[in-house]
Amino acid sequence: MKHHPTYLILFLIIFVFITGCKKDIPLITLGSLLEEMTDREKLSRYPEPYYICRQFSSYDRATVAPGDKSWFANWDRSMFIRTETEKGRKEYVMMDTEGPGAIVRFWMTFAGDNSGRGIIRIYLDNDTVPAVEGAAFDIISKGALTGEPLSSSVSDSTEYERRGHNLYLPIPYARHCKVTYESENIKDAGAKTGGEAVYYNINYRTYTDPVEVETFSKDLLGKYEKDIALTQKKLKERMLTIPPDEQACELTGTIPAGKSMETLIEGQSAIRLLRFKIDAEHTEQALRSTILSISFDGRTTVNCPAGDFFGTGYRIRGSNTWYTKVEPDGTMSCFWVM
User: Fold this and answer.
1) Are 164 and 255 within 8 A, CB to CB?
2) DSSP-assigned beta bridge partners for residue 325
3) Cα–Cα distance between 234 and 33 in angstroms, integer?
4) Ramachandran category for residue 227: left, alpha or beta (phi over 0 → left; psi -120 to 50 → alpha)
5) Using one digit for the tens of pLDDT, what is the confidence trace for 87-124?
6) Contact indicator for 225, 147 with CB cutoff of 8 Å
7) Rounded distance, CA 121 to CA 183, Å?
8) Residues near 179 by Cβ (< 8 Å), separated by ≥ 6?
9) 198: Cβ contacts below 8 Å, ≥ 6 apart
C-alpha cells in the first residue's frame, strides 16, 4: 500500500504541536519545600502548584456540629482516629490521608505522669515499614531528624516535658501518609480517668494540581544536608534581603487625636519592610488607638491597631521572628511582602 506524503506531514505537525504543549509536572522534594519555607515572596502569591492546607488534631470528637450542646466540648487530648494492632502492638492513629502531599508542621505536648514516652511512627505510601520511627520527644524536638529551629520546643523557661514541641521539617509523600503513636499509658479517650494526656496538631498540605513527589526517607537527610543547613541558618539569623533598587518612604510627625497622616506610593512595587515607632505620653493607649491602614490599588486590606499588627498588642514586648520584630525601644518592624 502506498501512503500519500500529505498525511505523513500532517501527522508530524500534530505530533510536534501536542508534545510541545505538554506542561512540565513540578517535582516536590524535601529540598524544594525547604527553599519555599524561607521565600517571603512566595507567601504573597497563590501557591503553584496549588495545594489545600488541612489539619489532624486531638480535638474533642464530641464537637459534631455548630449549635449542638456539645460544640464547646473541651476534652481535646488523647483523641485519635482509631486504634490499630500492628505486629502485636497497639498503635493510635493520629493522621491518615491520601497524597500527594506533605506534613509541614507537627506539634505535640503532654500531661500526666510518665507522659511523652511513647513511640511515633510515620508510614508513607502505604509501606508497612515506617519511614520515621522513634521516641516522641526525640522525633519532634530533640533532633533525631534535624536540629533547631526546625526541631525545637518552647518555652525555655518551662521544664522540658511540659513544653510545646515542634517539628517543622517537611515530610513529603507521593500517595499516602499515616501517623501513629504507641503508648501503654493511655487509659481512655480524653484521658478522663488519668493516664497520659496527648495533645497534637499535624498540619499538612494536599496538592490538587498534578505533581511528582519525592517521598521522604531518612536517606534524603544526607542528600539535602546543605539545604537543611542553609534553611536553619536563614531562620536563626532571620535573614532579610532587600533588592538593591528598592526605595524608602518615610513618614514622621505628630498626629493629634482624631487626625491621621498618610503617604502615597505610585507605580508597580511591593512593600518588603515596614518599620513603625510610636512616641506617646501613654504608650499602651497609643498602641491600641493608633490605627494602621493600608490600601492597595484602592482596596483597603490592612486596618488594624498598630500594636496588634506587629504582634505586640497594647504593650511593647520584645520579639524577633521570621516576619516581625519588636525592639525594646518600641521600634516595630514587619517583613511580609505586600
Assistant:
1) no
2) 320, 333
3) 14
4) alpha
5) 889 999 999 999 999 999 999 999 998 899 999 999 99
6) no
7) 12
8) 56, 93, 94, 95, 96, 103, 106, 120, 121, 122, 123, 202
9) 58, 77, 78, 92, 108, 110, 115, 118, 181, 183, 186, 191
Task: Please tell me the pTM assigned to this model.
Answer: 0.86
Quote the CA–CA distance of 280 and 288 in Å, as a whole number: 12
> How many other C-beta atoms can be found within 10 angstroms of the C-beta atom of residue 76?
17
Whole-number Å distance between alpha carbons of 273 and 44: 14
Report how far residue 314's alpha carbon sits from residue 326's, in angstroms, rounded to the nearest whole number. 12
Beta strands (DSSP E) in the chain are 27-28, 51-57, 82-86, 89-98, 101-111, 119-124, 132-135, 151-154, 164-167, 171-173, 176-182, 197-207, 212-213, 274-276, 291-296, 299-305, 319-320, 324-326, 332-334
Which cell is 246 given? 528598592
How far is the C-alpha of 169 from the C-alpha of 217, rounded, in Å?
12
What distance in Å separates the CA atoms of residue 272 and residue 274, rounded to the nearest whole number? 7
Chain centroid to CA 19: how far?
37
Instruction: Encode pLDDT of 279-323 as tens digits.
Output: 999 999 999 999 999 999 999 999 999 999 999 999 999 999 999
CB distance 128 to 155 below 8 Å: no
Contact between residue 185 and residue 196 where contact means Cβ atoms under 8 Å apart: yes
| Degrees, nearest 5: CA angle 80-115-94 | 20
List alpha helices for 68-217, DSSP H. 136-140
Residues near 321 by beta carbon (within 8 Å), at least 6 away in sequence: 238, 311
Asked if 178 contacts 96 with a C-beta cutoff of 8 angstroms, the reply is yes
